[in-house]
Structure formats: structure tokens, C-alpha cells
Design a protein that fits this description.
Layout (H helix, E strand, L loop, with lengths): L1 H8 L14 H15 L3 H13 L6 H17 L2 H15 L7 H19 L3 H16 L8 H21 L7 H10 L22 E2 L2 E4 L16 E10 L5 E10 L5 H8 L3 E4 L9 E2 L2 E11 L2
Parallel strand pairs: 1-6
Antiparallel strand pairs: 2-5, 3-4, 3-7
């Protein structure tokens, strides 16, 4: 979340929209934004949000900068109610120019979904997160959109964690089919989280990948705090197996809601081993080497 906050705040340098001439409608926003920048306390935030709510014109560089500044600060502070308010307001404001500012729009939708889940444990957050997944996946077609891949995996991970929470609580939540329908609106799918469908395709002259099991020993141990206890999280890894089934070059694609324990998790993953099933003959009828295997893990915070 800290990285996302910095990304959100730093976006102004790349803003490509031209500001409309300052008129009566935008004056209150400019003044409230200046006051917020000078002293970003609760009173200044409230005044700026009120000015942004009252503004009904098209997005300008000033109004977009103001929205993103509040959202960045709220995301960094981590107060779910405020995050929800500013994320929804930002997404609504950016929607008309989403094709111009796809990263900022997708990130606002992403934060809005997280905030709804953390604030109210509302199952609508799963559908909202699916929209963020779809937007990020759609943007990956652009080779210049380096932000899209990490956001897609973070959104995937949040969707998994939310689903696990609602299932454990035996609460109604959107089905896989409902989520898939949202993703389909963006031309996206859920195959990327299937370990049986590694990202790399097998060449026709290659031995097939051995049937077997990934021995995840030692077990992954997840840190937890009082605020997160009883909640669910998700970790998405990308693995490579060598010709003996050992894990090589593991990478953490996403870790939610906890960040910052990537190195610890990677030390654990490097000790894991893929073991061929009984009757398989690695090197003769099948192989253990494989690249770009995406492995999702869901865990409960105790």
C-alpha cells in the first residue's frame, strides 16, 4: 500500500491533459487544494473534498491533481472509510478520461475495492476488485504500461483473499461465474492463476511436464497483527523448476494484505521441491524443468 500511495501522489508529472481556464467553478477547488497542501489536516481535507464534490465541470489538471493528492494521503494513512470516500470520488471524476489516464483510474478502482472490504466487509468489493483486475489486464496489451502487470496480480490476490474470507464466514458472495463475467467485459480471464496452466507453452519436441506434487516444506509462516487477525490473505508466486524439481529464481508477484515479508517468503520457497508422481520417469518419459509457473496461495492470519 505504501508503494501504491507514492505512485498515486507522483503521477502529476506525467499528466497530459491541458487545464481549462480557471473560472468560478474551479476557484474553490484551487483554493482548497492550496490550503490542503499547506496543512493537510482533517479540516483541510474536509474542505477540499467538499470543493471537489461541488465541482461539476470536466476534469482538469487541477481537479485531477487534487483528487489524487487526497487519495494518495488517505491510502498511505490506511483509514478505510476515508480511502473509500476519496477512491470512489477519484474514480468517478476520472471515468470520463479513463482512456487518457488508465493507470490512475484503475488504481482508484483498486483502492476503492480494498477500502470497501476493509471498512464494511461488503461482498460487493469482490465485483469492484474484478473491475480493477479487468482494467489492469486490458492495459497489459500496451507494452508501455509497466504498471499493469503488478496491479493485475495484486488485484487477483485481493480477490482470492476476499473470496476466502466470505467462504469461511459462510456469507453469500459473488460466484466465480459472476467474477468471470466482469473480467470478460475487459477481455480478461482467470487462467493466469492456474498452476496447471504455466505461462510458458511447451514445445512440440519437449517431453511433457511430469505429473506430481509440489512439496511445500518447510511450511510458509505468515506474520500477523491484531488488526488483521482472523482475516485472509493471498500470496502469488512465480516459480521455475530445474531438472531435479528444485525451485529456482522464485518471485513474489503479489502479497496482500501484508507486504514487506517477501524476502522471508522467498527463503522458504527456495527450499520447496516438485516431486514426480510414482511411475513417472523424469528425463525419459517426462521432465521436471518448467518456467513461469504461477502459484497462488491463500492463508488465514491468526
Amino acid at each position: 500500500m505504501r508503494t501504491l500511495a507514492l505512485m498515486l501522489i507522483a503521477f502529476a508529472c506525467s499528466l497530459i491533459m491541458q487545464a481549462e481556464p480557471v473560472g468560478p467553478d474551479i476557484t474553490n477547488v484551487v483554493e482548497a487544494y492550496d490550503a490542503y497542501q499547506a496543512e493537510p489536516d482533517r479540516k483541510a481535507r474536509k474542505a477540499l473534498m467538499a470543493a471537489l464534490t461541488d465541482y461539476s465541470g470536466d476534469p482538469t489538471s487541477e481537479t485531477v491533481n487534487a483528487h489524487m493528492a487526497v487519495l494518495g494521503a488517505d491510502t498511505k494513512a490506511g483509514k478505510a472509510k476515508n480511502m473509500r470516500e476519496s477512491a470512489v470520488a477519484t474514480a468517478d471524476h476520472l471515468q470520463p478520461v479513463a482512456d487518457v489516464l488508465p493507470q490512475q483510474y484503475a488504481e482508484a478502482r483498486y483502492v476503492a475495492a480494498i477500502a470497501l472490504f476493509n471498512w464494511r466487509q461488503d461482498d460487493d468489493a469482490i465485483i469492484e476488485m474484478a473491475h480493477a483486475q479487468g482494467l489492469a489486464q486490458q492495459a497489459r496489451a500496451d507494452p508501455e504500461a509497466a504498471w499493469a502487470k503488478p496491479l493485475r496480480y495484486k488485484a487477483d490476490a485481493w480477490g482470492m483473499a476476499m473470496g476466502a474470507y466470505f467462504a469461511s464466514a459462510d456469507k453469500r458472495h459473488p460466484s466465480d461465474e459472476e467474477v468471470a463475467a466482469v473480467l470478460a467485459e475487459y477481455g480478461a480471464d482467470t487462467d493466469s492463476l492456474n498452476i496447471a496452466a504455466a505461462s510458458s507453452e511447451e514445445a512440440e519436441d519437449e517431453l511433457r511436464f511430469c505429473a506430481g506434487n509440489l512439496e511445500m516444506k518447510p511450511a510458509m509462516r505468515y506474520p500477523a497483527g491484531g488488526a488483521s487477525r482472523g482475516m485472509y490473505g493471498a500470496l502469488i508466486l512465480e516459480l521455475t523448476f530445474d531438472d531435479e524439481g528444485n525451485v529456482q529464481n522464485p518471485e513474489v508477484l503479489a502479497s496482500v494484505p501484508i507486504e514487506g515479508f517477501e524476502e522471508k517468503s522467498l527463503r522458504t520457497v527456495r527450499k520447496w521441491h516438485y516431486k514426480a508422481a510414482e511411475g513417472e520417469r523424469p528425463g525419459e518419459t517426462c521432465r521436471l524443468t518448467r518456467e513461469n509457473v504461477v502459484l497462488p496461495l491463500v492463508f488465514q492470519l491468526n
